[in-house]
């Protein structure tokens, strides 16, 4: 936690906004006013319904940032999560986040029958099993390498399918093709002495059928953490939250080093491995953004047309302002998730329908972390490891 929060803080201090910082007239440097606040919420791109407001993840063609934000490397693996996730005693509280539906703009792929064989762009054949779900933009099927056998419930792969004229799988696919090839992940895992890395592996992709439905083959996972969170009265134990934080820092270090930021970290995008439920994986790269193409970091620009992108309760202050997703934002989002997992509810969750309220609450608390900690953990309920963030420097 301290690694996460200190990373988050340090990055905040670095304030990418520095390019647009201005003197506030008191001798200090103030953040520029957010052009999104007080203005009508506008969305660009797919605009997923529910609490998630998605942006068009932007054109492809952005690149590496050499500098590593995070360092987690050789941390010992936890023996928890899934059936071992340590949860708090059940209490009635809080509603599940709004379900996500496919926006009207995007057609869902037609059903493919079980047993259908798909050939990827490398001419490898894959056989479909039963559908296992439907995301905002595509259908998911169990799958295996093609053989005479039927694809059973234990299949090791999942195929995500959607019509080829849809944007989201295309940009997600770009991420997987650039950064999630099995040999890249394997190399990183061994060089960083990790037991595993929570980035799903990409196994292939192609177009299938007359109308060219785009598909992508990836690892198959099990339950998502949001379900476990709801089943556990919306609380995870301190140990679970810290372990999740460490594993996610491993993931963020990897994807940040490979030119990308995720932009939508949350429990419903964290899936447990279906065979090894002590392992957690970050999925859904539909909003992932290549923040530094060819080593040139994307410029800090506040674009009112893309304010509040991401999932409203967790999205970063930058995203609220319509700035492209950043490494700093990923850490901030992770920080909000961890606080929610610890205390059950973020202070702005009562008014998620008002993005300007959510944005200004986050901005206010970011200037006063001790008051965020006090609000989330009133009285003596505060975990000891949050002490450094609750500590107020003596005045004068
Ligand atoms: N590789 C996978 N294996 C098993 N289930 C998956 C996999 N990928 C996604 N899912 C399930 O589908 C849901 C939606 O997938 P996701 O990639 O997050 O798409 P969306 O953009 O709709 O959120 C996830 O929350 C998870 O329950
Ligand atoms: Mg998702």
TrEMBL record:
It is an enzyme of class 2 (transferase). Pfam families: Pkinase. ATP binds at residue 160. Residues 33-61 are annotated as: Disordered. Its EC number is 2.7.11.1. It comes from the Eukaryota. InterPro entries: CK1_Ser-Thr_kinase, Kinase-like_dom_sf, Prot_kinase_dom, Protein_kinase_ATP_BS, Ser/Thr_kinase_AS. PROSITE patterns: PROTEIN_KINASE_ATP, PROTEIN_KINASE_DOM, PROTEIN_KINASE_ST. Keywords: ATP-binding, Kinase, Nucleotide-binding, Serine/threonine-protein kinase, Transferase. Residues 126-396 form the Protein kinase domain. Belongs to the protein kinase superfamily. This is non-specific serine/threonine protein kinase. It comes from Ranitomeya imitator (mimic poison frog). The lineage of its organism: Eukaryota, Metazoa, Chordata, Craniata, Vertebrata.
């Amino acid at each position: 936690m301290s690694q996460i929060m200190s990373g988050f803080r340090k990055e905040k201090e670095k304030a990418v906004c520095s390019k647009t910082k201005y003197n506030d007239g008191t001798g200090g440097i103030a953040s520029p006013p957010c052009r999104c606040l007080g203005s009508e919420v506008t969305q660009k791109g797919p605009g997923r319904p529910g609490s998630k407001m998605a942006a068009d993840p932007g054109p492809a063609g952005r690149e590496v940032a050499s500098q590593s934000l995070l360092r987690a490397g050789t941390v010992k693996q936890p023996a928890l999560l899934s059936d071992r996730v340590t949860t708090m005693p059940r209490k009635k509280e809080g509603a599940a986040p709004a379900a996500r539906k496919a926006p009207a703009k995007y057609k869902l792929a037609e059903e493919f029958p079980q047993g259908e064989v798909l050939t990827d762009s490398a001419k490898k054949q894959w056989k479909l099993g039963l559908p296992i779900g439907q995301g905002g933009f595509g259908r998911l099927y169990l799958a295996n390498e093609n053989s005479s056998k039927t694809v059973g419930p234990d299949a090791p792969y999942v195929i995500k399918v959607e019509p080829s004229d849809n944007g989201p799988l295309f940009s997600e696919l770009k991420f997987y093709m650039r950064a999630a090839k099995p040999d890249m992940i394997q190399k990183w895992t061994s060089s960083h002495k990790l037991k595993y890395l929570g980035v799903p592996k990409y196994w292939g992709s192609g177009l299938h059928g007359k109308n060219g439905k785009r598909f992508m083959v990836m690892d198959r996972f099990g339950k998502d953490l949001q379900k476990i969170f709801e089943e556990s009265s919306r609380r995870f134990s301190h140990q679970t939250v810290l372990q999740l934080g460490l594993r996610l820092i491993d993931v963020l270090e990897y994807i940040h080093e490979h030119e990308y930021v995720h932009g939508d970290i949350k429990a419903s995008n964290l899936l447990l491995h279906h065979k090894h439920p002590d392992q957690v994986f970050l999925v859904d790269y539909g909003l992932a953004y290549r923040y530094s193409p060819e080593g040139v970091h994307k410029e800090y620009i506040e674009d009112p047309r893309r304010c509040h992108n991401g999932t409203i309760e967790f999205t970063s202050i930058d995203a609220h302002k319509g700035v492209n997703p950043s490494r700093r934002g990923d850490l901030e989002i992770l920080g909000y998730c961890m606080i929610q997992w610890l205390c059950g509810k973020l202070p702005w969750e009562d008014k998620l329908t008002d993005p300007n309220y959510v944005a200004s609450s986050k901005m206010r608390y970011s200037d006063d972390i001790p008051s965020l900690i006090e609000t989330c953990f009133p009285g003596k309920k505060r975990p000891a490891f949050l002490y450094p963030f609750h500590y107020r420097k003596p005045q004068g």
